[in-house]
Design a protein that fits this description.
With about 950 residues, the protein is mostly helical. Among the domains are: about 180 residues, P-loop containing nucleotide triphosphate hydrolases (Rossmann fold, 3-Layer(aba) Sandwich); about 70 residues; about 80 residues, Arc Repressor Mutant, subunit A (Orthogonal Bundle), CATH 1.10.10; about 110 residues, Tetratricopeptide repeat domain (Serine Threonine Protein Phosphatase 5, Tetratricopeptide repeat); about 70 residues; about 60 residues; about 60 residues, Arc Repressor Mutant, subunit A (Orthogonal Bundle). Helices cover about 65% and strands about 5% of the residues. The chain is built from 47 helices and seven strands. It has a five-stranded parallel beta sheet with strand order 2-3-4-1-5, sandwiched between helices. Strands 6-7 form a two-stranded antiparallel ribbon. It is elongated, with a radius of gyration of 35 Å.
Length: about 950
């Protein structure tokens, strides 16, 4: 019976009506006993009557510290057609999470969130799916984390969520869904107290008779419209009337807890222990109660069942309301509770649940108990439940005897590590800071210092100090020293000290070799490669080839630390985009497959940047959106910084200078706050670019000069080239040609050392601009042609387009109208697909000044179309034509379509025949 909840039920029905259109849902919020579950059950029933598939979890308080109890409820009985959509790592991970008797070691915990997402999509493939969770505050953290990941990645799937939660509770799933589920986050519907009319109908139905107005007002005032409170009072009233107690003599409980307690105290005393066992167990059954209470008889629970305190369905025993279970548990004396937990520990089969009961049943620290709980924590961690592992490790530390202080501290550090893996960073930091004060210098303290440094991504200076101290205390523990060295190398690099970064990176490789751990060595070589690259030592091909081979020895290595990722990044930073792309795409797929959110966010940032540089705008926009989505799942200041910089970069490339300036300012503030001078440099370069194109060349120069000094000796590529090229253009604008000449010489030297044709092309373009500024137009034009030859060896569309634009502009000034027209048209064809508005507008303006009419469609082929057709006749593929003419593949295809239409042909063979029968239509006349 649902009384007084018409508005809430209507909201649920409207949600179900909209479910076929895509993800939607409701969280029913309110105080305990307010009626959330009643409305929730009505919604579940309505969904089933509509023919929707419904998966349900009704967690109880004991479930909150277990691993994947909620996920097990929801995915219980998954069919083979659903499992068939999972990859092997995903299926192993899901099996390890759902089956208590499975062997967890082979499973990859990172694949579990993706497995849950795939399973949900498969379940909804043939019709709407409703995920229904009652009492979300008791959902275990491991399940909540996995479900939060999966549900927040739905797009247009007909999947709904209906959950209940107590307001101001500490549930883990709700915060994720409130921000990231569907288009606007999961909506909350707050259940207010019932009005007096609804309470009267409720009480009359319960008592099966009308209730007097004075008593109604007494009950309503006491219950404040809470239906469970009112019903509990009504039951006492019924029992009192049966024993001859008058209405006026009835004592009204002052709180709902008092009312629940009195209700339980009135039960048959024989039910106390069986009900306590049921309240303490995560999956209470009659058989379980019999196992811990040999004298138990089913009749002991008859009174509790008649009083609607519990429901017995088959072998399963279930409290009718969570408050009844928690109150029954709290009413029992503490010694009896501990005794029941010890008895339960002897009979439950699940290792993690047994550990929980051992912890709750312990009278004092106990060595064997602590070891048993620690082993269970290891199993939980391997199953992909770091949340559970962290809780158990804290319990193991608590129960470690005083004479085993080192073991207690080690378990506390391990608990912090598991909290970090689960995203509970504040708790991890608190544990580490607590234990550090107790530790003597040595490897254990070094490990704690290093873990604390990992959590201080908000302060690189402090992180460096912690790591320096950790390195001093690691001693002969080579594996730990290697890991600390790699952390320290990265932190030094972020602080702008590339020399020390290389030193620490090289030392980390040596320590990994001394440790004899091949997987660790692979990771250290990959990390060292990045440090060496920015130190100016070039792409570390040999060591990375070795690292890629060794990586097979560590399948759990994070994807961002994978040697293939390191190689891909170095190739990208040296402008070898075509070689870098497949490596980074493979790393991205691996991170997605394994559910590695930080790695996915970081790699997608670099891959998006690569596609922007490659001119693949649609792909770049899609990956940028992926990167932003991944960022929402990661609480990491550096990832935030990456994404703000990327947005500034995109705005600058589009010519949205005011927006680029704002975003670059934001990125600089973020970087300054955490002490990341490395990434602050790139944001400052964007800011300088906006200054220059807004006519403030002096400000641009002031910003760029320090950056160039900081990165002197680095391998120049598109990421660092603006430090030189933009400053040269700024100095030319300021008339400081000799200063520009000095920087040009430096740039040419860097470009030759890097053997980077794109860098040489940009350097030659700068030389051409400098020659033009000195009045040598002919020399400037020849130099621009030299730049284009270099660009052809490693083409980046924006740089090619800019060089063509500068060449066309110089040719127009030199009165070479036909040549200027061709250069500017080619510039437009290259820049327009990039939507580089600032440059395309300038190209159109320059073209309008040439004074020659662009051929109309009826005039035959344009010069560019004719060049494309000639290259087809020469036997080149579309990709080869794109590379030859410095344009995108899509632009080539567009021109070829126009050529086909103009010549009336339908194939390459017909085009070759037509071209062979006709002389060229255009000639260049200067």
């Amino acid at each position: 019976m649902v009384l007084g909840r018409d508005a809430e039920r209507a909201r649920v029905e409207r949600m179900l009506d909209a479910l076929r259109a895509g993800p939607t849902g409701i969280a029913l919020e309110g105080a305990a006993g307010i009626g959330k579950t009643t409305v929730w059950r009505a919604g579940v029933l309505s969904a089933r009557e509509r023919g929707f598939r419904v998966i349900v979890s009704t967690p109880a308080e004991p479930d909150a510290t277990l691993g994947f109890a909620g996920l097990g409820d929801l995915f219980d009985g998954l069919t083979e057609d659903v499992l068939a959509g999972l990859s092997v790592p995903q299926r192993r991970a899901l099996d390890a999470a759902l089956r208590a008797d499975s062997e967890p070691a082979p499973a990859d915990p990172h694949a579990l969130p993706r497995a849950a997402l795939t399973a949900l999509r498969r379940l909804a493939s043939d019709g709407p799916l409703l995920v229904a969770i009652d009492d979300e505050q008791w959902l275990d953290r491991a399940s909540a984390r996995v479900l939060g990941f999966a549900l927040c990645r739905l797009r247009d799937e007909p999947i709904g969520v209906l959950l209940t939660r107590r307001r101001a509770s500490e549930g883990v799933l709700w915060p994720e869904l409130s921000r990231g589920f569907g288009e606007d986050g999961l909506a909350a519907v707050v259940l207010d107290p019932l009005d007096i009319k609804a309470i009267r109908r409720l009480l009359s139905a319960e008592l099966d008779r009308p209730i007097s107005p004075p008593l109604l007002h007494r009950i309503y005032e006491a219950s404040a419209g809470n239906p469970l409170y009112a019903l509990t009072i009504a039951r006492e009233l019924r029992a009192a009337s049966e024993s001859g107690v008058g209405e006026q003599e009835l004592p009204i409980p002052r709180t709902l807890a008092d009312a629940i307690a009195r209700r339980l105290e009135d039960l048959d005393p024989r039910s106390a222990d069986p009900l306590l066992a049921a309240a303490a167990a995560s999956n209470p059954t009659l058989a379980l109660i019999q196992s811990v209470l040999p004298a138990f008889a089913l009749s002991d629970l008859d009174g509790a069942e008649r009083a609607e305190v519990i429901e017995v369905a088959g072998d399963r025993v279930r409290f009718t309301h969570p408050l009844l279970a928690s109150t029954q548990y709290s009413l029992a004396p503490a010694p009896r509770r501990r005794e029941l937990h010890r008895l339960l520990a002897e009979v439950v089969s699940d290792e993690e649940e047994r550990a929980r009961h051992l912890a709750l049943g312990a009278e004092s620290p106990h060595r064997e108990t602590a070891v048993t709980i620690e082993h269970a924590a290891g199993r939980a961690s391997r199953r992909g439940a770091p949340d559970v592992a962290a809780h158990l490790l804290e319990q193991a530390a608590r129960l470690t005897p005083a004479d085993a202080a080192q073991a207690r501290r080690s378990r506390t550090i391990a608990a912090a590590e598991r909290h970090k893996a689960a995203g509970a960073l504040d708790r991890a930091r608190a544990l580490l800071e607590m234990v550090l004060g107790e530790l003597l210098a040595g490897p254990v303290r070094a490990r704690a210092l290093a873990r604390l440094a990992e959590l201080r991504g908000d302060d690189y200076e402090l992180a460096s100090a912690l790591l320096e101290q950790a390195q001093c205390e690691a001693g002969d523990h080579h594996r730990l020293a290697a890991q600390i060295g790699a952390q320290l190398a990265e932190t030094c690099a972020n602080r702008g000290d590339h020399t020390r970064a290389v030193e620490h990176g090289r030392a980390a490789v040596t320590r990994a070799e001394q440790a004899g751990d091949l997987g660790l060595l692979a990771q250290m070589l990959a990390a060292y490669g990045v440090m060496a690259f920015f130190h100016g030592d070039g792409v570390q091909h040999d060591s990375l080839r070795r690292a890629i081979e060794l990586a097979e020895h560590d399948q759990d290595m994070p994807s961002y630390r994978w040697p293939s990722t390191s190689l891909g990044l170095q190739l990208f930073w040296s402008d070898q985009l075509e070689a870098a792309r497949p490596l980074l795409e493979r790393s991205m797929r691996r991170a997605i497959e394994r559910g590695e959110e930080y790695d996915r966010a970081a790699i997608s940032f670099h891959l998006a940047h690569l596609e922007w540089e490659a001119g693949n705008r649609e792909v770049a926009e899609w990956i940028t959106a992926e990167a932003i989505e991944a960022q929402r799942q990661v609480d990491d200041p550096q990832v935030d910084l990456y994404l703000v910089w990327l947005q500034a970069f995109c705005a600058a490339r589009d010519g949205r200078l005011d927006e680029a300036r704002t975003m670059a300012d934001d990125a600089i503030k973020l970087a300054t706050r955490i002490g990341d001078h490395f990434n602050s440099s790139f944001a400052t370069a964007i800011l300088a670019e906006t200054e220059m194109w807004n006519g403030h060349a002096d400000r641009a120069h002031e910003r760029l000069a320090p950056l160039r000094d900081a990165f002197r000796g680095t391998v120049v590529g598109s990421l660092t080239l603006p430090f030189w090229s933009d400053d040269i253009e700024a100095l030319i604008a300021l008339g400081r040609l000799d200063d520009a000449d000095e920087i040009l010489a430096d740039l040419l030297d860097c470009a030759r050392k890097a053997e980077n044709p794109n860098a040489l092309g940009i350097a030659e373009r700068c030389r051409g601009l400098l020659l033009a500024a000195r009045g040598d137009l002919a020399g400037a034009i020849d130099t621009m042609q030299t730049a284009l030859v270099q660009h052809a060896l490693r083409p980046l569309p924006r740089e090619v387009g800019r060089t063509l634009l500068e060449k066309g502009t110089l040719e127009r000034r030199a009165k070479r109208k036909s040549a200027a027209k061709q250069s500017l048209e080619r510039a437009l064809e290259t820049l327009e697909p990039l939507q580089a508005n600032m440059w395309t507008e300038r190209a159109r303006d320059e073209l309008s000044r040439v004074g020659l009419r662009r051929p109309a469609a009826s005039d035959g082929l344009t010069p560019t179309q004719e060049r494309v057709a000639e290259l087809v006749r020469a036997g080149l593929t579309n990709r080869q034509i794109a590379d030859t003419l410095y344009m995108s593949l899509r632009t080539v295809e567009t021109h070829l379509t126009s050529v086909y239409r103009e010549l009336g042909v339908k194939s390459r063979a017909q085009l070759i025949t037509a071209m062979s029968a006709s002389p060229p239509q255009h000639q260049t006349i200067d």
